[in-house]
Amino acid sequence: MQWVKVLGGVVGAAALLGLGIIVGHFAIPKGADSPAPSASASQDLDLKILETVIEQLDANRIRENLRELSKEPHLATTPRDEALVQLLLQRWQDPESGLDSARTTEYEVLLSFPSGEQPNRVAVVNSTGAILFSCRHSEENLTGEQGGPNVVPPYAAYAPPGTPQGPLVYANQGSEEDFKELQNKGVKLQDSIVLTRYGGVGRGAKAVNAAKYGVAGVLVYTDPKDINDGKSLPNETFPHSWCLPPSGVERGSYFEYFGDPLTPYLPATPSSFRLNSDNASGFPPIPIQPIGFEDAQVLLCQVNVSVHNRLELRNSSNVLGIIRGAVEPDRYVLYGNHRDSWVHGAVDPSTGTAVLLELSRVLGTLLKKGTWRPRRSIVFASWGAEEFGLIGSTEFTEEFFSKLQERAVAYINVDISVFANATLRVQGTPPIQSVVFSAAKQISAPGSSGLSIYDNWIRYYNRSSSVYGLVPSVGTLGAGSDYAPFIHFLGISSMDIAYTYDRSKTSARIYPTYHTAFDTFDYVDKFLDPGFSSHQAVARTAGSVLLRLSDSLFLPLNVSDYSETLRSFLQAAEDLRVLLEQHGISLGPLVTAVERFEGAATAFNQRIATLQEGTPDPLQVRMINDQLMLLERTFLNSQAFPEERYYSHVLWAPRTGSVATFPGLSNAYSQAKNAGHEPAAWAEVQRQLSIVVAALEGAAATLRPVADL
């Protein structure tokens, strides 16, 4: 091995430094022979470079990127999707503004499409089967962009084919509680067709819940009260406003999990074992079809649903662009977004990709000029087939599982970069809070307020912190975008950055044309962000965060910010104490574990502060940074949630229980309470409590001096 020869000629402390840094020097190919500034082990964030990057991020270029990205529909694996793969490669291989290297990785994955020969159909029929009314097969062509040959008609991806027929029953949001209420009221659900509205529970869960009650088929629509603040007339919706027009239909994946359905926990490469699609789990059990609210309001009596979806193996590509780190090339800061859309996808996902291309252009130009090279490696990623269930990013994490767990510092996700133009919105794990706040404080918010992005953000979304006082609210990460496999599966500190709306002015659960044929460039240009200043604000914020993570001597991750979360979870768990103790379960070990973590985090931050006052040895810096990087991994337990695919983070797994504490404990407690005195149920509560305690003890141990075994 080449690095062994290198180390053979190095002695003393330099040998240890080499083991930490030179080992990874060949982890990322050197690619283009671009000039690079001289690097030293003490290289730190250059504020002049940071200022240059922020100044050069151009709103007009972002606007033109979006125009190009969204001019045609680009459903995953279609010719236009593949054309965008080539566009990304071309940009990242440009001799004047490209990166060190760019490449694609391809996976053969199972996708779902409507039949071109037999369109899906929803119709009202009489007792003889004669059609009295048919729902639209496609959305109304309002701007000339909804009727093109590459516009996929509305459908529920992965819904099974079938032609159920039965009386129509309205089932609200299709939750378990909604069906129980109908049953308790004596409503006959067996062999019925239920009409549900989006929201409340996941798409696929509506079909799963319905099937339990003998329902034959499910219809889903977007209610104007949930998306349009009640507006539903043609003259008050798109193209006259940002509101969803009556014919608009939200497409989406109804697969329960994320990743390729046939290769769970394995990359979908040619050599991988594949499940038989007939035996794969996670598909909706009964036919399901989305419709527009104009059709939903006229459906009565007997309904016939014809679904002719088909499963197909398709090749889908990720595109990776790499900037090699000058000092620590084996430490990766990843920045990604998906490329595919349901139709034109101007907002979702192209607002994010437009920002990604502009940020990589600015950094690539500095790189090619030889004025900058990051301390750590930067990996830009364009994921394929996200809309079908985060497929590209999940396959990537499966293929490079060990490499990423050992070397990835953080993952920055910018999917929909602009939902609206009021304020910044960030979701992420607690350690990323400090670096986002630092970036947001130094960038001006769009408009004439004169406020920083941070001060503008705090006006709209804030919380009271026991440590910092009033601060902006940082949301938690679920599974809504490509950050999911990084945080839940790999335990990599992650974040999602966007601009969003003023909640005091709209109750829309998301921007109204989400996943419809009306999500176009003109929609963004006219209604969401005229002038593209909010896109520029996101680019500047995400770019600043990226540079701080890739260039800072010490990683700007604050482990003590986890203490507030843990203390909050512990306080919520205290409400369970009485019933837990009745079943012989003590919270004492959990209290001790939280206190130990708090103490270890405080001492760890003090060691960093002491090192920053002097001239730290490179090996000391490396050890501290590894502790910062690896903390998130200590919260993983692959056996904690055996019923949940990919979820292994004991703090951020899905919580179905009503108590806002550690998810495994909350879920187990809720089930045990409903089960009464069932010993097995309370044993699971004890198991989940033990899992959390072990994770917290492990986290505290990770933060202690590395010599303290």
TrEMBL record:
Gene3D superfamilies: 3.50.30.30, Transferrin receptor-like, dimerisation domain, Zn peptidases. Pfam families: PA, Peptidase_M28, TFR_dimer. It is found in: Apical cell membrane. Its main location: membrane. Its cofactor is Zn(2+). One of its GO terms (biological process) is proteolysis. InterPro entries: PA_dom_sf, PA_domain, Peptidase_M28, Peptidase_M28B, TFR-like_dimer_dom, TFR-like_dimer_dom_sf. GO terms for cellular component: apical plasma membrane. Homodimer. Aminopeptidase with broad substrate specificity. Has lower activity with substrates that have Asp or Glu in the P2' position, or Pro in the P3' position. Lacks activity with substrates that have both Pro in the P3' position and Asp or Glu in the P2' position. Lacks carboxypeptidase activity. Lacks dipeptidyl-peptidase IV type activity. This is Aminopeptidase NAALADL1. It comes from Bos indicus x Bos taurus.
